[in-house]
């Protein structure tokens, strides 16, 4: 191989390595790791969306773990915390007490909580609720992913768990990727609750 060709190939290899070294995506790295943990965990980063930049309201109708149904219309007028989870997800188990604590704190203040179980059957979801003491309802979203699809726009549930705060109009006000920090979620809920309706 001639020297100019070798130099060109070497330069190309260095460029590729430099580009891949500069652009790391933690979620993509978890997906590609092959560690078989069966979920992609966020790092707790959160995004707040100013009211003027929020997309259209999220709309859905889905079945709860007890067989009854819930729709976005049922939650209209409340600030709503929506948590995507499933029983085998370690961060989901770790955050359950904080979610329940905030649910109890805000339930009489116009704040609703809704779990969205992305993998389990109703019996498993109910067993999780008993084990971890969660009393707010959860959708079983395994068959048709109705709720996951409703949230598949600009701020999708890209990790497990993912938690959203919806404003009173049902628009996404904030998103937390990964296990919630109680103080952060408390602030996001309080700030959204304080907004003018």
Structural summary, described in words:
By secondary structure, the chain is of the alpha/beta class. The protein has two domains: 3-32; 46-194, Glutaredoxin. Helix content is 39%, strand content 19%. The protein contains seven helices and eight strands. It has helices at 3-22, 26-32, 72-75, 90-106, 122-132, 146-150, 182-194; strands at residues 46-48, 61-63, 69-71, 79-85, 111-117, 138-140, 162-166, 172-177. The protein is globular. Residues 12-28 and 35-39 have low confidence and may be disordered.
Jot down its keywords.
two-stranded antiparallel ribbon; Glutaredoxin; 6-stranded mixed β-sheet; 2 domains; 7 helices; alpha/beta
N-to-C CA distance: 71 Å
The CATH homologous superfamily of the largest domain corresponds to Glutaredoxin
Structural class: alpha/beta
Radius of gyration over alpha carbons?
Answer: 20 Å
Strand tally is 8
Shape: globular
| Domain unit count | 2
Series of H and E elements: HHEEEHEHEHEHEEH
Residue windows where pLDDT falls under 50 for at least 5 positions: 12-28, 35-39
How much β-strand is present in the residues? 15-25%
* Oligomer class: single chain
CATH class of the largest domain: Alpha Beta
The largest sheet, given as strand count, sense and whether it forms a barrel, is: 6 strands, mixed
Strand order of the largest sheet: 1-8-7-4-5-6
Number of helices: 7
Helix content: 25-40%
Question: What is the third-level CATH name, the topology of the largest domain?
Answer: Glutaredoxin
Q: Based on the structure given, which CATH architecture of the largest domain is correct?
A: 3-Layer(aba) Sandwich
- Overall pLDDT confidence: 85
């Amino acid at each position: 191989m001639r020297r100019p060709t070798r130099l060109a190939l070497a330069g190309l290899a260095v460029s590729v390595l430099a580009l891949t070294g500069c652009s790391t995506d933690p979620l993509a790295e978890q997906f590609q790791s092959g560690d078989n943990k069966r979920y992609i965990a966020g790092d707790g980063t959160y995004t707040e969306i100013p009211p003027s930049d929020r997309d259209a309201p999220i709309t859905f109708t889905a079945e709860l773990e007890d067989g009854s149904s819930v729709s976005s219309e049922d939650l209209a007028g409340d600030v709503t915390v929506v948590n995507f989870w499933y029983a085998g997800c370690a961060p989901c188990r770790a955050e359950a007490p904080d979610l329940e604590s905030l649910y109890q704190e805000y339930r009489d203040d116009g704040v609703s909580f809704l779990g969205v179980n992305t993998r389990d059957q109703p019996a498993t979801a109910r067993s999780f609720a008993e084990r971890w003491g969660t009393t707010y309802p959860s959708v079983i979203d395994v068959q048709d992913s109705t709720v996951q699809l409703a949230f598949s726009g600009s701020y999708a549930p890209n990790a497990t768990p993912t938690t959203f705060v919806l404003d009173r109009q049902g628009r996404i006000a904030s998103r937390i990727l990964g296990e919630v920090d109680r103080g952060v979620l408390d602030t996001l809920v309080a700030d959204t609750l304080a907004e003018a309706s």
